[in-house]
Amino acid sequence: MWAELGLSVLAAAEAAEGSGGSVGSGGPAPGEMHPLLRYVLTASVYVLCAGMAMCLFRLTVGPELADRVLAADLLSLHVVGLTVVLTIYIGDLVFFDAALVVAIIGFVSTVGFSQYIFATAQRTGDDGRSLDPAAGPGGSEGRIG
Amino acid sequence: MSAWSDIVAAGFVLVGLFFFFVGAIGVVRLPDTYHRLHAATKAQTLGLVGLLVGVMFHIGTGAVDAKVITVIVFLFTAGPVGSHMLAKAALRVGDRQWKGTLSDEHAEDGLS
Q: How large is the ipTM?
């Protein structure tokens, strides 16, 4: 039942792509592949969705802000992986540019959130003492058990 | 495409899925932020490279190869840069470390 569900998801995406034929010449026809590759792609949908669920778990409970940013970055790369699987399945490059765009957006959002975390940190000088008058000295916190 | 290139593509996709899954498990299970960064960055880069090489073997035209190599070069550049910035920011705000951490040279030098 579950394998049929995964195949139907991929087939629906293929139907939505339409029967316009391959843009690039020389590639395989849409949906034409070895049965082993078809099984692997069906399994890959479930593996990637399980990975996305794990990333959502860390995005929800992550104790630090950096954990949430890391989980969002890994989530965007799982989306890229799903797009690449779809590209293999339909045998055409129409969705491959979306993979590149999602990868770039994920990288830029990671850099932006890193700058945000860095900017909200307590400012310390070169000697490790705080530059903010009201705050204590900066430094690493205690270690968790 | 022939059957053999599809079988090779299936092998590369399986390798990529393995790395993706290991990275996701590491993000859930590892004890602190720096361990999770270590798991996520390497696993996601290698996993996506596996899937992209699978695309190269399945389709195999010149346009596909050019785009796949572009994406692989971008990933190998962007992944380490992004995770390094994130780790530096986490050190700066003082994210707590695992109690089994052996060496923290950043704190011993009086930084962070």
A: 0.89
